[in-house]
Write a structure and sequence with these properties.
alpha+beta, PH-domain like, five-stranded antiparallel β-sheet, 6 helices, 25% strand
């Protein structure tokens, strides 16, 4: 029986005079690449057919759409989908993440061919570098455009009041190996508390999103919703499709063809479909308003704890007796779980990065905060009301 050879990993680590350089090529997924190549073949054929129709004004025998407005809309959507797939394929073939570490600066860079994005971090403000719990494979690919973002990775560290990531798609063993090499080069990276406060030109220190005010009567914490351009743009695009179907489909159904009669079951089906479609559209509108102007407000005094989530047209709140609140702590996700940040409604009060016990139930605060920022909020709340309990993590 053949013995399995130890894995060599993908990270290429180089020790230079100026510091450490770690290159991580993108993970190649053969089955995914085969599917993308097949999909792009179909995409090119359909793209050419629709472009021919729009340029000549004559439908082909294999016309996919009819009507000028729908043709332009379909062409735009199909083009965007194809560009996104090409980008994903290029990332798997030639994409790479580059980590450069010196005694004063940590630079993260993601590059595809001649295009790259980078982030710089002051080493003096980095603390608690550690691997994160592994997640299912499909969780890493939940967002097609996430390859060039800096919101995901197998390694995380605290930077001021924000939590940052690097080492995308590394397995747990290799992530630990990369951390060991980086901490061997700069000892302070593993420390729980950062030393010093070095100012480096062009480097922004993590300030967190939570705005904490102490007016003497209590603590007032405001957490603005995190604006994400890609998700917001997709939401607006989906909303356009929703409005198109919401108003055009019932109109065409009611208008019908001359002399055509409708059965009762057809009206019932259309009423059910329109109701569900309207409900879905209202949900998308609420999510867009949350992304643009939403915020969470936490009010704490010696008597009560109140959590409120609000958008310009709606708000939800819940109050707790402080005497019944205990064991305020950071709510770490279970090991192996996928990112559930957007699995529930943004206006829901059933999720958050801070959890506490109230009677025999667990309740949450502070949706979407970074780990470092959440722990800072816990510290401030515990200082204000001593009885809230120790800052502990739970799985």
């Amino acid at each position: 029986m053949a013995i399995v050879e130890p894995g060599k990993g993908r990270a290429v680590i180089e020790h230079g005079e100026t510091g450490l350089r770690i290159t991580i090529p993108a993970e190649i997924q053969p089955k995914g690449m085969m599917f993308m190549c097949l999909w792009l073949t179909i995409w090119v054929i359909a793209e050419a057919i629709i472009a021919f129709e729009l340029l000549t004004g004559e439908p082909t025998d294999r016309s996919f759409v009819s009507g000028p407005l729908l043709s332009y809309f379909w062409f735009a959507m199909w083009t965007v989908a194809g560009m996104s797939m090409i980008y994903t394929l290029l990332w798997q073939v030639v994409g790479k993440e580059i980590i450069e570490l010196s005694s004063t600066l940590l630079r993260l860079r993601k590059r595809i061919l001649f295009f790259s994005l980078s982030r710089d971090f002051a080493v003096s403000s980095i603390r608690n570098m550690r691997p994160i719990s592994p997640r299912p494979k499909d969780a890493n690919n939940k967002n097609t455009l996430s390859h060039l973002s800096f919101r995901d990775g197998a390694i995380t560290f605290d930077y001021g009041r924000t939590t940052r990531y690097l080492g995308q798609d590394l397995n747990e063993a290799e992530a630990q190996y990369v951390i060991d090499e980086m901490c061997e080069h700069v000892k302070s990276l593993r420390a729980e508390a950062s030393g010093g406060n070095m100012n480096i030109a062009g480097v922004e220190h993590g300030r967190g999103r939570a705005i904490i005010e102490n007016d003497g009567t209590g603590l007032h914490i405001t957490i603005p919703a995190e604006f994400r351009l890609g998700i917001t743009a997709f939401g607006f695009l989906w909303l356009i499709i929703w409005a198109y179907v919401e108003f055009l489909l019932p109109y065409l159904f009611l208008k019908g063809k001359p002399g055509e009669t409708r059965e009762m079951y057809e009206y019932v089906f259309m009423a059910i479909f329109t109701t569900l479609w309207t409900y879905g559209g209202i949900g998308i509108i609420a999510e867009l308003l949350w992304s643009i102007a939403g915020k969470e407000i936490i009010e704490l005094n010696s008597i009560r704890l109140k959590r409120t989530k609000q958008i310009p047209i709606f708000r939800r709140s819940r109050e707790y007796d402080v005497n019944g609140v205990a064991n305020l702590r950071f709510a770490s996700p279970p090991a192996g779980s996928a990112d559930t940040e957007h699995s529930t409604s943004s206006l829901s009060l059933k999720d958050g990065t801070i959890v506490f016990d109230h009677g025999r139930g667990a309740h949450y605060l502070a949706s979407g905060l970074d780990e470092a920022d959440a722990k800072y909020v816990i510290e401030q709340m515990s200082r204000r009301v001593k009885s809230l309990g120790a800052n502990e993590e739970v799985a």
